[in-house]
Amino acid sequence: LVGRDGHLTVATTRPETLLGDTGVAVHPEDERYKDLVGTTCRLPFVDREIPIVADDTVDRELGTGAVKVTPGHDHNDYERGERHDLPILNILEKDGTLNDEGGPFAGMSREKARKEIEAQLEELGLLERVEDIKNSQPISDRSKTVVEPLVSEQWFVKMEPLAKPAIGAVKDGTLKFRPERWSKVYLDWLENVRDWCISRQLWWGHRIPVWYDEDGVPCASVEDLELGSAHPETGKPLVRQDDDVLDTWASSWLWPFATLGWPDDTADMRRFYPTQFLATARDIIYLWVARMVMAGYELLDHLPEEQRNPFATCYIHATVLDAKGRRMSKSAGNGIDPLEMIEQYGADSVRFCLISLTREGQDVKLAENRFEDGRRFTNKLWNAARFVCSNLSGERGAGTMAEARTFEDRWILSRLDATIAETTKALDEYRFNDALMGLYRFTWNDFCDWYLELAKGRFTAGGDSQDGVVVRGVLARVLGDLLKLLHPFIPFQTEVLWQVLHDAVGEELPSQLMVAPWPHGIGIEHDAEAEGRMDLLQELVRAVRNIRSVTMVGERKPLVAIVNAPSEADRAVLAELEAPAKGIGFLESLEIAEAAERPPSSAVGVAGGLEVFVPLGDDVDLDKLRGALDQRVGKTRKLLEGTERKLSNDKFVQRADPEIVEAERARLGELGTELELLERNLAGLGA
Fold first, then answer.
1. What whole-number distance in Å separates Cα of residue 611 and Cα of residue 305?
2. What is the pLDDT of residue 400?
3. Global pTM?
4. Is the separation of the CB atoms in 646 and 583 below 8 Å?
């Protein structure tokens, strides 16, 4: 707005910078100032005529809508000044006092000049009003004082020629990002890159390789120049080297090849450059990643162009946040010290936890109790491996399909072969979470919960029989390959267990796991017959376990089970599996039928295509069980209704993490199945 006596009123948080103004900017569509654009106004104290220009970046609602432009002391004003060709004035000395451009305030400190200017504006009748406001001030990490923007002479690198081959590397597939979406961040920066200021006014770092003669004429040199030697152009003696040092990134962009002996043509350089893989954080995609690529193409001109890109894949890893999704920091007090977690849970448990939580492209919400998952898994593996090794007696560990005699041997070897292939493929594609979770399921479920339980009786009771030898050979083979597969994820425990396995099996195994070859698989096709049999056995045992859970009958109490299996083929297989089913399910007897009637006062379990009835004995208090089931039905129904409400909320589905939404949908299905089973069991108990 136009103030008293026709003055143009502007707002400022730093009155002393009025002295460095070289223009006033207004928004081109601001009706208050349209007629003033293209005219000039006179600056108080220094009697300078400055133009009024129209600029789209002016916020019409901020202050008076008229913005003073001080290109020498404000980043935004510098850009506005460039657009409108405004001159740059520096009003400050490096000690923070005003220089000769400060007019009557020259020699004063910023703080004193600020107060003097405010007082004189008031005296001249030019002060509209003073307000207390909150504004952002950059503070130096080192000195803890306000940072004063100051135009100064710096060294720059022209970036456009450097950016072109680095852009091409991504567009032609020479450089790939995982997840791929981060390539857009990389390209956006390079395609809009500005010249790079590489000089810093610090006392540490690589010193700028520029020397000056007595007239201040610069000379850049790859080799160090002696002070007093002749300037290569002027012939005058060199008197000083530039005091500035290189920006951190102007040193670290050399890392991929400087570490290999560059600029010399070394054996390491020929062997290790280019590398294959870089893992880093999203924050430095343009600060470091893009600059390393540019340096490779620019500085390694002795290599063919297709060999200059420093790495084939750039993997952008997740950021570890606290349980509420906030960045961890000391000031917020929400950090988790990994050394403390390692001390409490063990290094492998910490590694397992972090990898298991980190899905590609998603940040990690981490709470201390999540490390318990890692400890449980490593304990499970430790106990299983030690148990197996304690029962081996020099087996070569060459378990093969030809040696396998039982369906469970063939099943575990078939599952092992598939797991090796899946893990190898996931690691080749940098899907670390998928690789680990596949190994988790194979280790915990297939190997420990099922195969070991089925095999225990054979290798303890079989002794030196052929069956005992075979099952121990299969166990040694599976355990050995499993330790190899898990080694990248939990290296410390697997190395220790490998030594135990090595002692039990003999010298055939390499003495150290870290140099053992990656498992190649057994070279078999998927054994559908063995896996089908195991699926059927698992369905039966799970149905029995569901009954134990519902009725709160002890885990190892012998039960009588009646199985309804509509398929004749399934009934035939179940009949053959009666012995292992009774053993692993802790069953006293097993009756297999096509469509048996449900006995009175019995519990029911369902899994897959099987329906299992278990008559409840006289030792079960039916009234008490009925009351407990009734409570569980009510609780489960409430949980089901709550989950349904959550998933029917569009805001939750759209805003929550995809994995959380998917977990809620899976939970909805589980609760529905649980409720149906509880209601069937409650109904079967009668009034």
1. 67
2. 47
3. 0.75
4. no
